[in-house]
Specification:
heterodimer, A: mainly beta, four-stranded antiparallel sheet, globular, B: mainly beta, six-stranded mixed sheet, five-stranded antiparallel sheet, 11 strands, 0% helix
């Protein structure tokens, strides 16, 4: 049981490049989410999904796209990288309790630098 | 303005001391979770509190959910160096129950 896995662990991009951060979970959780973590800001919600085929915006969605074609996978796409997107990105999954996400499990993170 | 506020932002104490960190909001939350995060790793869930007034204990850690479900506290008794880390509260606000929002965290350092 691997839990939540993320790839890559580290990435350096040039301004304007695009890339996809991968996230997969093997716990059959319906709910998945992406956060970014910056110093002093805690974790900020980028996008989330309550189930396959359903995605929605979080607190800071601009510049990012997501899709959820399967229960297991929830990739995050950076369309045109900007230095402001330099951050640590975490993917999480949880089961739902009466429609509310409950107890999230996090991946190890992807450290992204945009130059 | 963040939906969840945490205080203090930083805390440095000697081993053996007691401490309390706070998580506050003007909004009602369906539940509140506490996580601990160590450098270079993802947050790890410590506890979830669901009912207003609920108290949960995890060894030397005591968690309380406010009666109005707008605040929570984490009390650590006889802190140890292994308690060092970033403590984060999070939860889905009742107004948008499908989003889990995090506070900015309290960075705790326990000095041997």
């Amino acid at each position: 049981n691997a839990g939540v896995t993320q790839t890559p662990k580290f990435q350096v991009l040039k301004t304007g490049q695009s890339m996809t951060l991968q996230c997969a979970q093997d716990m059959n959780h319906e709910y998945m989410s992406w956060y970014r973590q910056d110093p002093g800001m805690g974790l900020r919600l980028i996008h989330y999904s309550v189930g396959a085929g359903i995605t929605d915006q979080g607190e800071v969605p601009n510049g990012y796209n997501v899709s959820r074609s399967t229960t297991e996978d929830f990739p995050l796409r950076l369309l045109s990288a900007a230095p402001s997107q330099t951050s640590v990105y975490f993917c999480a999954s949880s089961y739902n309790r009466q429609g509310v996400p409950y107890e999230q499990y996090f991946g190890p993170g992807t450290r992204l630098t945009v130059t | 303005t963040q939906l969840l506020e945490q205080s203090p932002q930083f805390l440095s104490i000697q081993e053996g001391e007691n401490l309390t960190v706070y998580c506050n909001s003007s909004s009602v939350f369906s539940s509140l979770q506490w996580y601990r995060q160590e450098p270079g790793e993802g947050p790890v869930l410590l506890v979830t509190v669901v009912t207003g007034g609920e108290v949960k204990k995890l060894k030397r850690l005591t968690f309380q959910f406010g009666d109005a479900r707008k605040d929570s506290s984490l009390h650590i008794t006889a802190a140890q160096p292994g308690d060092t880390g970033l403590y984060l509260c999070a939860g889905p606000p009742s107004s948008s129950y499908d989003k889990v929002i995090f506070g900015p965290g309290t960075s705790l350092s326990v000095i041997p």
